[in-house]
Input
Amino acid sequence: MTISGGVAQRRPGEASGSALRRTDQALYAAERAGRDKVEIAA
Output
């Protein structure tokens, strides 16, 4: 079993939808990077 993840911290004043989009983008970046990766959203 392998696990990839994306992580983002909500910025002050940022809408929750925007934070979720950044988390989703980080997840896809982790999947592209290979197995057992975690990417942190910028």
The mean pLDDT is 96. The longest strand covers residues 5-7. The two ends are 27 Å apart (CA to CA). The CA atoms of residues 7 and 40 lie 5 Å apart.
